[in-house]
Structure formats: structure tokens, C-alpha cells
Design brief:
six-stranded antiparallel sheet, 3 helices, mainly beta, five-stranded mixed sheet, 208 residues
Length: 208
């Protein structure tokens, strides 16, 4: 699988590089223990207390309340795709790979063909805005055995537990958390998720 740069023109339909100094948040993130698999924290108070978080809130989210969390660990597979009703900021502490698609390619039955996924390298220290129409999920390690850390910035409350599962529209079956619509691959065995990914569960570092 070709791994492209987020600075290439091919990335423009998915997002853009954001010029922000998040060194303070990245230094705090690197102090966390690295899991064998993948951990996600939607909101981390220490991150949200930084000067960088205030810049993100005012400049990247237009003054809306935000949460600053983190996804970290070791991963090489797609496993699922998700989307929100808004953009998301990802900031790489180490080199990482994002597997991305477009919401417009989801079929009427909410299935999605994984052959449409593209891979992009986010270098350490680089921040990217992922558009609300971009399908994404946990980042992948940039090399065999390497860890990844992605600072994740979203509108406050996103990815928190639902107080009740909505059922008013067909799309509601994809909702697994607040402001989170998810389509999983059967191989990933994500509890309670809709298994609508068709094709290979892409392994970005182990493909022929």
C-alpha cells in the first residue's frame, strides 16, 4: 500500500496541515505508559490546561468548547472507520500513519469498501485537521514495533458514552458514542458495532 504524505495534494480532500506549536501537550503525552494495544482518552485535564489548548479552541474551533485527549499504543490495522459532525485535530508525537476514506463512499446500506482507503504519513510534531466528512479511526504505527501517540482534539463531549441509543433514523445504528458514527470490520470484533466494512481489514505494514 502506498503511504503518501499529508503535505501532498492527495491529502487535501481529507484535511489539511495546521500550523500550531503543541510541544507542551506532546511532552505531557510522552510521559504516559505505552500500552501493548491501543488506548484512547477523550479528555485529559492536564492537556486542556495548556496554552496550546486555548489556541486550538479559539483558532481551530472558533471558540467552541473543546476536549483534548489522546490515542496511543501500537497498531497496524484499519479495524473500523468513524466520522463526526465536525473536524478533528490530530497531532503526532511520533511518526504515525492515518488510514482515511470519504463519507460519500458509504453505500446506502451503510457498508463501505476498504479498497477505497488511502494511507498518509503524519511526521512527528505535525498537526492535521481531519474534515468531518473524512472516515478515520485509530492511527497506525509508522514502522514495525514502533509506538504512536496522537493528540486528539474535538468538540467537548465527543466520544463520551451515550445516555440513550437513538433509533429515529437508519444511520442511528452506527452511533456508538456521542457524536461518533462507526462502521467496523467483522475481524476486529468490536462489541456492539455495525460490521459494515467490506473487503480486507487493511494491515498497513504487512501487505503483499
Amino acid at each position: 500500500m502506498e503511504i503518501k504524505s499529508v503535505k501532498s495534494s492527495d491529502f487535501k480532500k481529507y484535511g489539511k496541515v495546521v500550523d500550531i506549536d503543541a510541544t507542551e501537550i506532546l511532552d505531557l503525552a510522552k510521559a504516559y505508559d505505552m500500552p501493548e494495544g491501543v488506548d484512547y482518552f477523550a479528555s485529559i485535564e492536564a492537556f486542556e490546561a495548556t496554552a496550546a489548548a486555548k489556541v486550538l479552541e479559539k483558532s481551530c474551533f472558533g471558540g467552541m468548547p473543546i476536549e483534548v485527549g489522546m490515542c496511543l499504543g501500537h497498531n497496524t490495522k484499519l479495524n473500523a472507520v468513524e466520522y463526526h459532525r465536525n473536524s478533528e485535530i490530530n497531532i503526532a508525537a511520533y511518526d504515525m500513519i492515518l488510514l482515511l476514506g470519504e463519507q460519500k463512499d458509504i453505500e446506502d446500506d451503510f457498508t463501505y469498501d476498504t479498497s477505497k482507503i488511502e494511507a498518509f504519513l503524519v511526521p512527528a510534531g505535525v498537526a492535521v485537521e481531519i474534515y468531518g466528512t473524512t472516515l478515520h479511526y485509530a492511527p497506525c504505527s509508522a514502522s514495525e514495533g514502533a509506538p504512536f501517540i496522537s493528540i486528539v482534539v474535538l468538540p467537548k463531549g465527543t466520544n463520551f458514552d451515550l445516555t440513550e441509543q437513538p433509533t429515529a433514523t437508519p444511520e442511528d445504528k452506527l452511533m456508538t458514542a456521542v457524536n461518533k458514527w462507526l462502521i467496523a470490520h467483522e475481524e476486529a470484533a468490536i462489541d456492539g458495532a455495525f460490521n459494515g466494512l467490506k473487503g480486507e481489514n487493511i494491515d498497513v505494514l504487512h501487505r503483499s
